[in-house]
Design goal:
With about 200 residues, the protein is of the alpha/beta class. It has a single domain, classed as Peptidyl-tRNA hydrolase (Rossmann fold, 3-Layer(aba) Sandwich). Helix 2 packs across helix 6, helix 3 crosses helix 4 and helix 6 packs antiparallel against helix 7. The radius of gyration is 15 Å and the shape is globular. It is an enzyme of class 3 (hydrolase). Keywords: Cytoplasm, Hydrolase, RNA-binding, tRNA-binding. It catalyses: an N-acyl-L-alpha-aminoacyl-tRNA + H2O = an N-acyl-L-amino acid + a tRNA + H(+). One of its GO terms (biological process) is rescue of stalled ribosome.
């Protein structure tokens, strides 16, 4: 099948810069970095898109995977994503966005293809720039802010000490999910991972 020969584009959503590195909003970057590490790929500046990119294959002879961390801020992520999808000739159905999700409790992962953006500016920008909502989303639950904290402040704050105890495991599990989507398909990944 021709589609299998086309690369996949994994987009970790986040904000560039050290001050944002451990924020809840940057969990997409954390997952992309781990997947890159697993496939032995290093991030570098892309010549055509405002993004850091790493390239490799999933397993011996496996599908090509392009990993991206947009260097724009979250709400402008779509431009670099669309440029990379065009550059690598990635069909929109083989674009995977990994992002934080307020509407899912901390520690839960959900996957879907298409649908609304749920107020997530990174997704909104991607949908607009790609001209489609039909890309895969790996949604990393961060839960709702405590008390009356503004959601905008909450997503730009670091994970709590309690959350950090599980964070490494959850980022690892998210990387497993991404690999499962690419190698076994979205439906298989949903059945395997939606339980936890």
């Amino acid at each position: 099948m021709a589609e299998e020969l086309q690369p996949w584009l994994l987009v970790g959503l986040g904000n560039p810069g050290k001050e944002y590195a451990r924020n809840r909003h940057n969990v997409g970057f954390m997952v992309a970095e781990l997947v890159a590490e697993r496939i032995g790929a290093k991030f570098g500046r892309h010549r055509r898109a405002h993004a850091e990119v790493a390239e490799g294959r999933l397993g011996f002879g496996g599908p090509k995977l392009v990993l991206a961390k947009p260097l724009t801020y979250m709400n402008l992520s779509g431009g670099p994503v669309a440029a990379l999808a065009q550059f690598y000739k990635v069909p929109v159905g083989q674009v995977i966005a990994v992002h934080d999700e307020l509407d899912i409790p901390y520690g839960q992962l959900r996957m879907k293809c298409g649908g609304g953006e749920g107020g997530h500016n990174g997704l909104r920008s991607m949908s607009k720039s790609l001209g489609s909502k039909d890309y895969v989303r790996v949604r990393f639950g961060i839960g709702r802010p405590p008390g009356r904290q503004d959601p905008a402040d909450y997503v730009l704050s670091d994970f709590s000490a309690v959350e950090r105890k599980e964070l490494e495991f959850l980022v690892d599990r998210s990387a497993d999910v991404v690999e499962a989507v690419v190698t076994r398909g979205l439906e298989w990944a949903q059945n395997a991972y939606h339980g936890g």
